[in-house]
Amino acid sequence: MSIISSRRRGSSAWKNLLPLVACCLLVSLTASGEIVGEPACPAWNTFVAEGWPLSTALGQPDFNALDINSNAMTDKLEMAPLEAVLCNEALPHHGAVRALYQANLATLRAEPEYATLLQPFENALVVLTLVDQYTSDRIKHVLDLQGDYPTFTLGKMANEPFSWSGDYDNDGSVNYCEYQRVLAEGMGRIQYAEYVTNPAEPGQPGCNPFRVPDYCAIVDSIASNGLLRSLLDAEDALLLNKLFCKGSDAYCAANPGAAWCPVNPPEPSPDINGGIDEVAQLPIGNGMLDVEYELGLIRAVLQNPSFDLSSGTAPGQVRPGISYGLITQGLHVNRTRLYADLGPDIVALLEAFGLAYLGEGLVDLMSSYLILGDDLSAASVIFLFGLVGEYAANPTPDPATFVNLPTYFAWFGDADGDGYCNRLEYDAFFDPDNPIQYVIAALDPTIVPPGSSECPDQAYDFNVRYIYKPENRHVYHTTLVPGTGDGCQVYAKNHYIGKMERVYIPGDVVTIRSAEENQWLLDQGLVPDTRIIGLHDPDLDNENWEWYSGEPVTYTNWRSGEPSKPDEPWAEIRTDGFWNDDDNTRFGIIEFLPPCDEAYYDLNENGIPDEWEDNDGDGFPDGFLPDGTPITCLAAEGEGEGEGEGEGEGEGEGEGEGEGEGEGEGEGEPPPSYALNAYVSGNTAPASVTVEPPSSPSLPTGQFYEGTDVVLTAVYDSLVDEFVGWRRNGNPAGSLNPMEFTTRNFNTTFIALFEPVPAEGEGEGEGEGEGEGEGEGEGEGEGEGEGEGEGEGEGEGEGEGEGEGQDCESEWHTADQSLNNLIELTELLRVIQFYNSGGFHCAIPASSTEDGYAPGLVGSNSCCPHASDYAPQDWKIALTELLRIIQFYNSGGYHYCPGEGTEDGFCPGPA
User: Fold this and answer.
1) If DSSP codes are grouped into helix, strand and coil, which group holds residue 468?
2) I need a surface site. Which of 67, 238, 454, 756 has the fewest CB within 10 A?
3) In this structure, are residues 767 and 863 in contact, taking their beta carbons and an 8 Å threshold?
4) Angstrom distance (rounded) from CA 684 to CA 720
């Protein structure tokens, strides 16, 4: 919120401030607008007097610390060289700077709020608008200025001589380095103005403000950091796989047990700046590899300080291109702001855990993605920020406040100004084994792609990742990276779905069996450009073409004269539907068979099979177990009445008329229906779940209209297994059996949870109040829970009222097993274990573990909950709760503070 909008709402701050600053005014206005009562330039004491109220207006009450442009240089010193040039006719550009100063001053005096707000600090304000365009824009934004305030430049933005990356005196030392020397020598504004304007005064020796990021090392270090993976939950930890660049082989060699290593090799370079897949909740690509290609352009320019295509007049240029100064200025601003958004706490936390690349490298990575400038790249930054953002000072950074350069670096930008967008250069010069080929072409205006210079209307849209074809019940997908035909087949065979990439469904590069299928691919938008299909020539004889799927070749649609060359072993489909043979690397179309025999349904008609969606948000598709096993495929109408877990045992079609569901059917469109699946877990003997009724009237088994009352019954062998309770869409749902449930407007999955019946004499009643249940061991319960156990099978789980009747308040945090008001590393790792395992429960007996708890959500809740489980208290450790215990770990201790209103009753730091 700007200070103007705050003042308009009646804030009294300005009423109190104006009398104070009025007495400090050294200027007054004549009718002509000339400055009266001053020398030919504003004296430095004018800037100082005006700086304090200006600083307050910009949100920083200390003028000595004001840094409105977030470049780690105080604005008070940044103003000094401009004041020197304004007041010294002998310095270069004195006249031009003075003229622009007067022009911006006149613009300021025409602002609607000038007389009531801006006049007390007009000179200081105007001088700051001359520093650089970013500073000028920030001031306009904060103070709601309406006019245009151009910065002082010597041509392009890259040549702003007073900016942090400028070099006014052309001594080879940028202003930031001159500033660092002033700080190192303990000097002030006079010395800084002298250093910036005098080429005989170089900056700080060894100053290097332009760190050149090694993007591959950054993403590999982030993705392979074992401690980071332990701090994140299983879903987010596996998301790190998408970041790998080149070091993944070494990681897998060092971590042979990593789940994803054997079957899901990482892509050759991440591509995560094409938006967010709403189904899988994963970042997806724009069709251009990031690290060595898109970000490779930035790295190449940063390695060459003399790089400058900003004139637009170099050979081959039709417009201005990028320059070293423009990139470095933008990256510095973005880095500074991202550090501010993360905040000192999260930076300190990352450093404490040795995650240097998350304190520095991740900021470099996100700064560079922001430089790319398009909205989808910015969305990827927000996604990456989210890995640590829940604990950051600003959980959601605003991309609009950063420096973005889409004109040069977005997929539709033109880095070298040759008239061909980066997308066209990428398509023409992409080489997976030689990324520098694209980098050189995209930064050299004399190298242009063949053919038209018309840039595509948009980047390739991968947001609709899966397309379902009901005629053959197959699912189609496009690769997210280009490859050869063999490379696309490897991608297809190692394909995963789901946020956690845990559901493994291999496919093949697409088989086209008819003209109808060929046209269908075009109609579905799967061929936005030339795409690899599954036909290939393994013998390189141009005769024995085969489908990767192994199906016979019954249909082809070769363009006239094709296939033409024995050394072009892969077929591709063009946008007109005709096929060509080639040896190039391109995106491929992948085809998947259903993982079970029954039909898929797409009841919400979003192009994605319902079983592949994650409507309950538990991290894996609704139709699959966490290990990738299908729960059930919805049976086609009239099929599947046989017995089967989760489908109501098939006890008669149409039973339970649905109590009125579906009234009005036949009058217009039928209401939508939703899948209800159920299965069992943890049982040692056969068990199942019956669902009554098995469906709503006229719907296939397992399909229900919203609002249908159903009864779920867990059927099991009570001599072998104990029924623990239900989980609905991954969350606890009670322990009643049978259980009544009313269907909702989304697919729902129930799990009936079991534990083996303990052998006699194992003391299963200790502390759980199970009483004298017959056949469960004499004396169990030892008087606790009297009257609860009469009757066979009764009392199992009774008395598990989350510590009811117990006094759970304590001055010691339950993680602090040493009782020393410190959270030690081993104690912290124990809470992390509960976080990673999805929950915790009471250990039986309590003495069987060091803290009285055991990992995993399933188990007894009869003891007092862990002190880290408070928001809400649900026998799980949420991320915010984990970060709280990490805060205690980092703050050197904790203390009991029940009267201070904290959620958990504790405060960080020693008492």
Assistant:
1) strand
2) 454
3) yes
4) 7
Structure token digits, residue 90? 């002998």
Number of Cβ atoms within 10 Å of the Cβ of 524:
15
In whole angstroms, what is the distance from residue 599 CA to residue 593 CA? Answer: 11
Stated as kind and residue range, the H or E segment containing 393 is none
- Give which of 48, 607, 664 is closest to 277, Cα–Cα: 607
520, two tokens = 């269908």
Distance in angstroms (rounded) separating the CA atoms of residues 531 and 586: 6
Q: What torsion do the CA atoms of 128, 132, 134, 137 make, to the nearest 10 degrees?
A: 50
Q: Closest by alpha carbon to 75, among 151, 164, 158, 11?
A: 164
pLDDT tens profile 284-331: 777 788 888 999 999 888 888 778 898 889 999 999 999 888 888 788
Question: Measuring CA to CA, how many Å separate 409 from each of 211, 292, 322?
Answer: 19, 14, 9
Tell me the C-alpha distance between 154 and 96, whole Å. Answer: 10
Query: Which two three-digit tokens encode residue 607?
Result: 């192009």
Q: Which residues pair with 755 in a beta bridge?
A: 722
**Segment of 58-67, 364-373, 476-485, 737-746 carrying the highest mean pLDDT:** 364-373
Tokens representing 16 are: 């109190």
415 with 372: CB under 8 angstroms? no
The residue with tokens 């009782």 is: 819
- Rounded Cα distance between 503 and 497, Å, is 5
Rounded to the nearest angstrom, the gap between the alpha carbon of residue 519 and the centroid of all alpha carbons in its chain is: 36
- Higher per-residue confidence, 27 vs 62: 62
Three-state secondary structure call for residue 466: coil
Residue-by-residue DSSP string for 735-777: --SSEEEE--SS-EEEEEEEEEPPPTTS-TTTTTT----TTS-
One-letter amino acid of 35? I
Q: Exposed (0-12), middle (13-18) or buried (19+): which is 787, by Cβ within 10 Å?
A: exposed
Q: What's the pLDDT tens digit per position in 125-150?
A: 999 999 887 788 778 877 889 998 98
Contacts of 114 (CB under 8 A, 6+ apart): 108, 122
Distance CA 385, CA 236 (A): 12
Rounded Cα–Cα distance for residues 607 and 191 (Å): 66
Residue with tokens 């991954």: 730
Give the whole-angstrom CA distance, residue 71 versus residue 209.
11
- Name the pairing type of β-strands 673-681 and 748-756: parallel
Angle between helices 75-87 and 94-109 (to 10 degrees): 120
Asked whether residue 260 carries a pLDDT value surpassing 60, the answer given is no
The residues facing 496 across adjacent strands are 504
Instruction: Say if residue 738 is preceded by a cis peptide, omega within 30 of 0.
Output: yes
Q: Which two tokens stand for residue 705?
A: 């209209």
342-353 burial, b for 16+ CB within 10 Å, e for fewer?
beebbbebbeeb
Give the C-alpha separation, 166 to 323, whole Å: 13
pTM (whole model) above 0.70: no
Rounded to an integer, the average pLDDT of 646-667 is: 35
29 strand-pairing partners:
35
Interatomic CA distance for residues 300 and 307, integer angstroms: 9
Residues 6 or more apart whose Cβ sits within 8 Å of residue 911: 821, 893, 895, 896
Alpha-carbon distance 637 to 699, whole Å? 7
Q: Report whether the peptide linkage leading into residue 563 is cis, meaning its omega lies within 30 degrees of zero.
A: yes
**Looking at residue 418, what is its pLDDT?**
96
- For the residues of 70-102, what is the DSSP string, one character each? -SSS-HHHHHHHHHHHHH-TTSTTHHHHHHHHH
Helix or strand run (H / E) with residue 689: strand 688-692
